[in-house]
Structures are given as structure tokens and as C-alpha cells.
Specification:
Layout lengths: L5 H15 L14 E5 L4 E9 L3 E8 L4 E2 L8 E2 L7 H11 L4 E6 L5 E6 L5 H12 L14 H8 L11
Antiparallel strand pairs: 1-2, 2-3, 3-7, 4-5, 6-7
Bound molecules: zinc ion.
């Protein structure tokens, strides 16, 4: 079993607490792409997605700042710093060690992004907040979730987030 680095572990703990243990107010709404947390020491960005593809929880890891290799004219650039071989498997192992059943993984090395699906569904109050975001602004139904009125935007601000610095 691998030992997560301290920074990675702190981010996982914060994200999983947010997904599973944090009560969201009933006047908050949350976009389905969830919470992003930085792990600057390892140039990683972790996503905690409460309702990807229906009700599936997904933990994603991305290279935060990608360095691209220029392969010459007419050739696609390739990332110089993709996820490490085995990095996604190690993340899945860490999540299992924390007591979560992993349903599947996607991508990973040599790509710059990877995802782990978890069997346990997110906190009901968080899923309800995602449903409210889907429903959109009740005052301006034609604008729906894309409404930019103050009242609608305030609902996103009422989501309870961990104290770690979130990604921009
Ligand atoms: Zn509105």
C-alpha cells in the first residue's frame, strides 16, 4: 500500500469530507463539476465531482500546469509532464485505503488527467444543491442555470467549502 504524500492526503481528506460529510444549506446550489483543490507542491489539481454522469462520484487528478513539447510544424504538441505511470492506480489505492469502493478509473498516464469513480453517493444535501443548480434561477426561468442575477449568483456563494485554498 502506498503512503500518500502529506499534501495529497490533506487535499483528499478535505475533498472527501466535502463530498460526504458536509451539510449544504438548502438555499445553496452547486454546479455538477464540483470542487477543485490545488496541490501546488506536486503541480496537481484535484476535482471532487458529486454527480458526474448521473449520481456518480468522481475524484479527478489533473496536471495543474502542463509543459508542452513542440514536436515541430504540423505535429501535435505532447505533454512533457503527464501524470506519472501508476499515479492514477496509486490514487485509487489511496481511496480504497480510506474505505471507499472504487468502481472504475479513466485515463491516467500518458495523459495529463485521470479519474476514479466511487461507489458511494455524495451527501444528500450536496446532491440536492446540484439539483437546484440544474433547475436554474426560479426568478428568471428563461436564463436557467446561466442566470447572472445577484440572487442566483449568491446561491453558489452559499455552498460550504473546505478551508483549503480552492483553485481559481
Ligand atoms: Zn436570476
Amino acid at each position: 500500500m502506498t503512503t500518500p504524500t502529506a499534501g495529497h492526503r490533506a487535499v483528499l481528506d478535505a475533498g472527501l469530507r466535502w463530498l460526504y460529510e458536509t451539510e449544504q444549506p438548502d438555499n445553496a446550489w452547486q454546479e455538477h463539476h464540483g470542487l477543485l483543490l490545488r496541490a501546488p507542491a506536486t503541480n496537481r489539481l484535484y476535482g471532487f465531482i458529486p454527480a458526474n454522469d448521473g449520481r456518480r462520484v468522481v475524484v479527478a487528478v489533473d496536471v495543474a500546469s502542463i509543459a508542452w513539447i513542440d514536436n515541430g510544424p504540423n505535429e501535435l504538441k505532447t505533454p512533457a509532464n503527464p501524470l506519472e505511470p501508476g499515479e492514477l492506480a496509486a490514487l485509487a489505492t489511496d481511496l480504497r485505503a480510506l474505505g471507499f469502493e472504487v468502481t472504475s478509473t479513466w485515463n491516467g498516464h500518458p495523459q495529463t488527467t485521470g479519474s476514479v469513480g466511487l461507489a458511494r453517493t455524495a451527501h444528500p444535501s450536496l446532491l440536492a444543491a446540484v439539483d437546484r443548480a440544474h433547475a436554474g434561477c426560479l426568478a428568471h426561468p428563461r436564463r436557467g442555470a446561466f442566470c447572472d442575477c445577484d440572487a442566483w449568483r449568491a446561491g453558489y456563494d452559499r455552498v460550504v467549502r473546505p478551508a483549503l485554498p480552492p483553485a481559481a
